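Regression test case RT-17, inverse folding.

Input:
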């Protein structure tokens, strides 16, 4: 059938149809650009997958690749005393990160260590050895192992692995994995003398959840703070020369168990991580916050009161 349109009308209709097809094609391939994050991250994040409706950009910074945390626990001094007597530790806090409102929980020592490993003081109000206070269920160290990660304790001056009796400068109450009968087999293998940290650091074999427990002199319990500061300097030199630190996957926490004889007060709690540069966190935190970070780190459920605590790691975007 002959066309009812003259040639000019036919050309105009063809151009109009072509333009409509082009607009439709361009529209089908365009998306809104993602909003920029508030601040750049040390690690690049993957580009968001385009969607028909743009989604909000997450406000939480991209993690910095921390997969291992080594915690060193000192003894019995609040923030003011520590700053006055431990210049090396004070310098670390200023250089890397410090929690300025990390609260002491209770007195004496043992319930504070239980708060870290069990997520509760469990009503304990003394420093008796493990035979007096067997803890049911797992510790954060046991949870790390059961969730496919590594855990280890390095205890200075300990006579034998996972030793449950205090002797000389070794205090079993500070080596709290020994209080968990369900974890005794793992403790017997992985709760070792502190000297083992040298080889593990050199081999890049530090655990995902690790504790270094200095003896009663080097944790400032029975010796001056300066003695503890010198020991800490030597340990940090060893650990920071290893590939776990050099690769950016290790964070180091240095805290205290309590303020001696006082249930209150703050503990100088320092976070040393490659991504931190003079960071000060003023949020209220405590040993339950440490416990929460350790279980979050290994993808395990938090223990007891730690379930309601803010994570120490999250507070520092780690």
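Golden output:
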């Amino acid at each position: 059938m002959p066309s009812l349109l003259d040639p000019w009308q036919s050309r105009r209709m063809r151009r109009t149809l072509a333009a409509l097809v082009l607009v439709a094609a361009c529209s089908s391939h365009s998306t809104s650009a993602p909003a920029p994050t508030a601040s750049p991250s040390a690690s690049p994040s993957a580009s968001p997958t385009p969607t028909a409706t743009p989604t909000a950009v997450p406000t939480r910074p991209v993690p910095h690749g921390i997969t291992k945390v080594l915690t060193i626990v000192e003894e019995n001094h609040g923030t003011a005393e520590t700053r006055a007597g431990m210049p090396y530790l004070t310098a670390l806090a200023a250089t890397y990160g410090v929690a300025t409102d990390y609260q002491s929980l209770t007195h004496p020592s043992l319930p504070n260590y239980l708060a870290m490993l069990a997520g509760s003081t469990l009503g304990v109000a003394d420093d008796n050895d493990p035979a007096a206070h067997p803890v049911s269920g797992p510790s954060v160290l046991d949870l790390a192992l059961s969730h496919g990660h590594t855990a280890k304790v390095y205890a200075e001056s300990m006579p034998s692995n996972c030793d449950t009796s205090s002797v000389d400068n070794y205090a079993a109450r500070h080596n709290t994995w020994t209080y968990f009968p369900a974890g005794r087999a793992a403790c017997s293998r992985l709760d070792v003398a502190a000297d083992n940290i040298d080889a593990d650091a050199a081999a890049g074999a530090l655990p995902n959840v690790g504790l270094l427990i200095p003896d009663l002199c080097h944790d400032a319990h029975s010796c001056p703070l300066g003695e503890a500061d010198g020991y800490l300097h030597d340990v940090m030199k060893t650990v920071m020369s290893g590939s776990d630190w050099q690769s950016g996957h290790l964070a180091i926490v240095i805290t205290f168990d309590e303020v001696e004889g006082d249930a209150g007060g703050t503990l100088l709690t320092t976070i040393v991580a490659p991504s931190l540069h003079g960071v000060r966190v003023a949020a209220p935190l405590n040993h339950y916050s440490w416990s929460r970070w350790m279980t979050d780190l290994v993808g395990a459920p938090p223990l007891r009161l730690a379930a309601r605590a803010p994570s120490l790691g999250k507070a520092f975007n780690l």
